[in-house]
Amino acid sequence: MGSRASTLLREEEIEEIKKETGFSHSQITRLYSRFTSLDKGENGTLSREDFQRIPELAINPLGDRIINAFFPEGEDQVNFRGFMRTLAHFRPIEDNEKNKNAAPSEPLNSRTNKLLFAFRLYDLDRDDKISRDELLQVLRMMVGVNISDEQLGSIADRTIQEADTNGDNSISFNEFMKVLEKVDVEQKMSIRFLH
Ligand SMILES: [Ca+2]
Ligand SMILES: [Ca+2]
């Protein structure tokens, strides 16, 4: 095996990823070459620093949170399989997938899984609730410095008040879904991947 072997994706691996993520063969090979070009250590995994070289993430106020979502808890490397699994949340829902009841499990790009992904960007301590503090942190990242702590605090309070139906002063995933019921999440959380 030469050193180039590590840069090739096996055909059966492509098939497995296809099944798991719904990406097409050509999307997978294209994303694989993107993956390997980001992999500066050339060890088949990406670190947080590798992700920070993606310009779209570097300028996104939630970039660090999104990068974090690629990493399984307690790990600081992600392999191609894990990379694709996370990206799959951003895959648009195709027309022919909308009424598919035969799927063995819910696809990664379903509305619920997209929402769960967004929810986890807020829920830093992963206790399945968004606390006032966690909401404040995200608000601060998104609005920058042009708004006072007091104003941000009252936005956070109002948001929680509106969402919190069981009165525990935090937002559960169910409450989160209710708030976003009328929002076109499928559209907002989709990236057009070229075919
Ligand atoms: Ca939390
Ligand atoms: Ca609640």
TrEMBL record:
Name the InterPro entries on file: Calcineurin_B_homologous, EF-hand-dom_pair, EF_Hand_1_Ca_BS, EF_hand_dom
- Compartment list: Cell membrane; Cytoplasm; Nucleus
Alphabetic keyword roster: Calcium, Cell membrane, Cytoplasm, Lipoprotein, Membrane, Metal-binding, Myristate, Nucleus, Phosphoprotein, Protein transport, Repeat, Transport
List the Gene Ontology MF annotations in alphabetical order: calcium ion binding
> What is the predominant subcellular site recorded for this chain?
membrane
Q: Give the family per the record.
A: Belongs to the calcineurin regulatory subunit family. CHP subfamily.
Q: What is this protein called?
A: EF-hand domain-containing protein
